[in-house]
Amino acid sequence: MKTVLLGLLLGLLAAFPHLAAPLLAAGRVVAVQPLLWAFCAGLAARPRIVRRFSRRIS
């Protein structure tokens, strides 16, 4: 199913190449932010400190 959706997305971008420009710009912005990726990875791992911190906030 994932390959079908990826194929449809690539076909859509091939048919309408002007739609790819915003995607490329957004991809560049996300790729150059390693601190954002590290923060997201830390949240995904959910260490004990993050769980305690989130409990104290809420």
Give the topology, please.
Elements: H1 2-15, H2 20-31, H3 34-45, H4 48-57
Keywords: Membrane, Signal, Transmembrane, Transmembrane helix
Transmembrane segments: 30-49
Signal peptide: 1-20
Show unreliable segments.
Answer: none
What is the radius of gyration?
A: 18 Å
Give the topology string: H per helix, E per strand: HHHH
| N- to C-terminal distance | 38 Å
Strand content: under 5%
Categorize the overall geometry: elongated
How does the major sheet shape up? none
Find the count of extended strands (DSSP E, 2+ residues): 0
Number of distinct helices: 4
Helix content: over 70%
Structural class: mainly alpha
Mean pLDDT: 78
Signal peptide: 1-20
Keywords: Membrane, Signal, Transmembrane, Transmembrane helix
Transmembrane segments: 30-49
Structural overview:
This protein is mainly α and 58 residues long. 83% of the residues lie in helices and 0% in strands. It has four helices and no strands. It is elongated. The model has no long low-confidence stretch (mean pLDDT 78).
Give the tags.
single chain, 58 residues, mainly alpha, 0% strand
Give the structure's gist in a few sentences.
The chain crosses the membrane at residues 30-49. The protein is mainly alpha-helical. The protein is built from four helices and no strands.
